[in-house]
Amino acid sequence: MDIIFWIIFGALAGWLASIIMKTDHSQGTLSDIIMGIIGAVVGGFIMNLLGQSGVMGFNLYSLAVAVIGAIVVIYVGRIIRSK
């Protein structure tokens, strides 16, 4: 059951990041989920580098960390695609 919650959490984070980065119309739901899950990992890594805790569960702080990470993933993806 936890994996379903994490997929929903990742989808929400990816969707929010895609809206912020204005890629919502060009990405699908699966892409949002993948970006959110990868973003949670990347966001947790970034926060650990800054001396803060990463994703700690289902709360607003963790959602913010996952969204920030997903934004970074989308941005890097744009850079790679433009070259």
TrEMBL record:
GO cellular component: plasma membrane
Topology in membrane: Multi-pass membrane protein
Protein's UniProt keywords contain ATP-binding: no
Transmembrane helix keyword on record: yes
Major localization listed first in the record, in broad terms: membrane
Protein name per the record: Transglycosylase-associated protein
InterPro entries for this protein: Transgly_assoc
Residues annotated as transmembrane: 6-21, 33-52, 58-77
Entry superkingdom: Bacteria
Subcellular location(s) per record: Cell membrane
Keywords: Cell membrane, Membrane, Transmembrane, Transmembrane helix
Family assignment from sequence similarity: Belongs to the UPF0410 family.
Pfam families, alphabetized: Transgly_assoc
